[in-house]
Design a protein that fits this description.
The chain has 131 residues and is mostly beta strands. Helices cover 12% and strands 51% of the residues. The chain has one helix spanning 2-17; strands spanning 35-39, 43-45, 50-58, 63-73, 76-85, 95-103, 109-118, 121-130. Strand 4 and strand 5 form a beta hairpin.
């Protein structure tokens, strides 16, 4: 009798412990990566393309630039960098990459660029745009 209750308990654990639902894992390139440094001019003119050099960290040697996501609120532009990870053999080291971000202001004023650097952290650059 004791063997039957142990056997039924084990069978119960097996059936309850296994799930038919697959765990989904989001790919690394669906998350933004931290921007570690931004080099940008302090001033520019209306209609002139402003170019900023953005340095960002990726999780391994296969990481490279994927895309920017920018949200504007008034003269504040919040920018996130999304990586792309190519297939193949990758070094397992955190690597810093470089990409150029461009913006063409249409009005004079002070523009604040906030580049996402982590949870509630930003690398911020202010650029004065002259008429």
């Amino acid at each position: 009798m004791k063997k039957i209750s142990i056997l039924l308990t084990l069978i119960g654990f097996i059936f309850l412990g296994c799930s038919k639902e697959e765990d989904t894992v989001s790919p690394l390139d669906s998350y933004p990566v931290p921007v570690v440094q931004v080099n940008a001019p302090e001033a520019a003119s209306v209609g002139e393309t402003v170019t900023a050099t953005v340095f960002f960290s990726v999780n391994n040697g296969c990481g490279e630039f994927g895309s920017f996501e920018a949200a504007r609120s008034g003269n504040t532009i919040t920018v996130k960098v999304y990586p792309h990870y190519r297939d193949g053999f990758c070094t397992q080291a955190f690597v810093t990459r470089e990409v150029t971000y461009t913006y063409k202001p249409e009005k004079a004023g002070t523009y604040t660029f906030k580049f996402w650097a982590g949870e509630d952290q930003y690398n911020t650059k202010s650029i004065v745009i002259y008429q």
